[in-house]
Description:
alpha/beta
Amino acid sequence: MTSSARPILNRRLAEFGTTIFAEMSALAATTGSINLGQGFPDTDGPEEIREAAVRALRDGRGNQYPPGPGVPELRTAIAAHQQRRYGLTYDPDTEVLVTAGATEAIAASLLALVEPGDEVVALEPYYDSYAACVAMAGGRRVPVTLRPHDGAFRLDLDELRAAVTDRTRLLLINTPHNPTGTVLTREELSAIAELAVERDLLVVTDEVYEHLVFDDAVHVPLATLPGMRERTVTISSAGKTYSYTGWKVGWVTAPPALVTAVRAAKQFLTYVSAGPFQYAVAEALNLPEDYFTALREDLRAKRDLLAAGLEKAGFAVFRPAGTYFITADIRPLGESDGFAFCRSLPERAGVVAIPNAVFYDHREEGAPFVRFAFCKRHQTLREAAERLAGLRHG
Ligand SMILES: *Cc1c(COP(=O)(O)O)cnc(C)c1O
């Protein structure tokens, strides 16, 4: 400790203490609760992809610093994936950058593109790293709140337009959206695109849940819309798609000038990302369509299982069109404070959830909502549903 009165943590980060996830995971451990707080799968992804990582390690591929932009095999596979799925053409040499997860891609993009004082418009509630990265870049975050409408959280396009000022540098978009499970529609995305073109804004779009969409929802990458490819930094990652969240392989696709800028920041954050995993993810991106279909089908069944349990327990459920999170409203249970509810839930029901308010600047907007992750074994979800059923009577 220093003896001066000056706080140790700098002003930019002072508001970001330890995350709620640490507190809730600790609570899960001490109470023996089922942890549906943090979003990581409790089973590993495809065996053959794990074996590909082992092979790369054994064969000495990537054990020393790989190339700064990522290994060519992976950059080629990323470009091929964007082409095959979305008809988006990217040059693997100049328009693809491999990062240490999507988290680093977000950080590097904001650090590279935002000047101190620039405004960043982001959809609220938002993934917790957005606010911290905007702050580290010296930017100002301008939240546009998604609000419940016909059973889903939707974007108010007038509010979005009103949020853009002469100081706005970029729009930070996330679809499929964590924590609400909303998948932005083509109409919503078209309005975002028109606004970006009209006001000449850059767009950073976090699409890590691109493969996790259900029923008739369709993921439309923003970069596919007119005028967008040239101004959009698209971010994705292997963590969610292949159920290896610990590997931390993410990527950026964007035009050369934007990739060069993001790389300028990335090179001083991590320099390069873990080598052997990059070879394995290259193979993962080339898995046949069956893999993605089976993943979606498995998660859809899990979503339905948990949603039914939550409804039976008395929550109002926003059935997600994408991601592996369910947002639920606690008001039908006679509760209104998600923080207090989540702190007491382990004791009352042996289940851990996350209060959505942590994802808001306007905390009151998120107060009655809590988030449950359903990327867990069927048996675990059934057990959680049984425990939650007691809430009505307890
Ligand atoms: C999980 C997640 C990330 C982080 O992805 P990593 O590849 O693990 O760094 C980024 N954005 C959203 C919305 C997420 O849910």
